[in-house]
Design brief:
It is a single chain. By secondary structure, the protein is of the alpha/beta class. Among the domains are: 88 residues, no CATH class; 90 residues, no CATH class. Helices cover 18% and strands 49% of the residues. It contains five helices and 34 strands. It has a 32-stranded mixed sheet that branches. A two-stranded antiparallel sheet has the order 8-9. Helix 1 runs parallel beside helix 4 and helix 2 packs across helix 4. It is flat, with a radius of gyration of 30 Å.
Length: 452
């Protein structure tokens, strides 16, 4: 007869099962939430959970006299692998939904997708009316007509084991036009049922002077030729707005934004991928973390971008502003430019106004085809600074590289250049004087080139 104590079972397997159940439950009620993204950041919490479970197992075994469970059993290892594969699957699902917001990933071998189209009776609106378009799942397309009529085409879509079952689901969804205190509201009712959400695309023709607000939780928004102000939102989809006669605002969580030909101001906020803004008569502001690239062209007023890694303000973009994960490019700016960023290379060409750049861990290149007329201030850390000026330029310069050197094509008698003890310095005046150029970097070479 063996006197060895019974081995105690570990609580880790139970904790993992509870964790997996919570994940599946949360994903069911919040399918658009990026759980995989948080798992990628916080996966070490699994190790903390494992360690805490083993401490509890050890203390419980000491109190009861039972043998300690193994550090990691075969079942626990299999569960941990399952957790990893679950989050990989959630990541793939989220990526596919970003590529196609209307993609239905609910697997049912007996269901097929069906759709039907209906047109609502036209409604005459007063001048300068405000119209709101909303749908839980579906695209929104809006443009203006020549009269005062509001016309709505609805395309419903649903899945079901038979066409009649899908039609029954679509029949319960009604798109209504309601007059509210603030204008008119166009939206579906009874869009969600026990089988999920019935899609309802809205294709709307508006009176010319309408002010429009459009929002979809899962779908794209496409708006053109609206003379009034436009506010568009999508939690999971692309937004395109063209030829707007007033201010335009876009808010999103995933997807791309394209806004062109706007007579007023433009603002984009939230999170997403690509942004393209062009031909704006007013200001253009971007606020949020976007993976990019971000392209801004021809903005008469102030163009600004604010995120965790960059803070940029440019006045009068005649050329372009382009950003991606590694680089910022600016060309042909009528006014002042101010950039504060890190972990990015910067390439600037032809800024007519004052130029201020603060950067870390990136190289900076600045070029002028005409002699600069405003001050230039550049502060870099762990990067090279390369400035090219026309040979007829006049300026005062003060450049210091703390752990590097300074090289200059300008050899005027008014300049003093030294590279000693690992530090490079350039100071003095070129020509008759002019704007002040201040350059400082901690690690890297400073180049002052002369263009032909």
């Amino acid at each position: 007869m063996s006197n060895a104590p019974n081995q105690r079972g570990s609580i880790f397997s139970g904790l993992l099962l509870i964790f997996l159940g919570a994940v599946f439950l949360f994903e069911h009620f919040h399918p658009g939430f990026r759980l995989w993204h948080y798992f990628y950041r916080y996966w070490p919490l699994l190790l903390i959970l494992w360690g805490a479970a083993k401490i509890i197992d050890h203390l419980s075994a000491q109190r009861s006299g039972e043998g300690k469970p193994p550090l990691l059993s075969g079942g626990e290892a299999a569960l941990m692998v399952l957790v990893v594969f679950v989050f990989i699957g959630l990541g793939v699902k989220s990526w596919m939904m970003e590529k196609d917001p209307n993609l239905n990933l609910n697997v049912d071998m007996f269901s097929k997708d069906y759709s039907e189209t209906e047109e609502l009776p036209a409604k005459t609106l007063p001048a300068n009316a405000q119209v709101t378009l909303t749908t839980e799942r579906g695209d929104i397309s809006a443009h203006t007509g020549e009269d005062a009529g509001l016309r709505v085409m609805v395309n419903k879509s649903a899945s079901g084991p038979t066409e009649s079952a899908a039609q029954e689901r679509m029949k319960k969804v009604k798109v209504v036009i309601e007059q509210t205190g603030g204008g008119y509201l166009v939206h579906p009712v009874n869009q969600e049922d026990s089988e999920g959400v019935v899609g309802a695309d809205l294709n709307v023709t508006l009176p010319p002077q309408t002010a429009l607000w459009a929002n979809t939780s899962h779908g794209n928004v496409n708006i053109s030729d609206v003379a009034g102000s436009v506010t568009a939102g999508s939690s999971n989809g692309d937004i395109e707005i063209h030829k707007g006669g007033s201010d335009v605002s876009a808010k999103m969580s995933k997807g791309d934004v394209r806004i062109t030909g706007i007579a007023g101001n433009v603002s984009v906020a939230g999170h997403g991928n690509e942004i393209e803004i062009s031909d704006v008569k007013g200001n253009a502001a971007i606020d949020g973390d976007f993976f990019g690239p971000i392209r801004v062209r021809s903005v008469a007023g102030r163009a600004s971008y604010h995120s965790q890694k960059a803070d940029i303000t440019i006045v009068g973009v005649r050329g372009r502003l382009q950003l991606d994960s590694e680089q910022i490019e600016i060309s042909d700016v009528a006014g002042a430019s101010k950039l504060n960023t890190h972990d990015k290379d910067i390439d600037v060409e032809n800024v007519n106004g004052r130029l201020d750049i603060t950067d870390t861990k990136g190289d900076i290149k600045v070029r002028y085809s005409q002699a600069p007329r405003e001050d230039i201030n550049i502060a870099d850390d762990s990067g090279e600074v390369d400035i090219t000026l026309p040979l007829n330029s006049s300026f005062e310069v003060s450049a210091v590289s703390q752990s590097g050197e300074v090289q200059s094509d300008f050899d005027d008698s008014g300049l003093k250049l030294t590279n000693e003890n690992g530090t490079g310095r350039l100071s003095g005046k070129v020509g008759t004087g002019g704007p002040k150029i201040h350059i400082a970097t901690s690690y890297g070479t400073i180049y002052l080139h002369k263009s032909s």
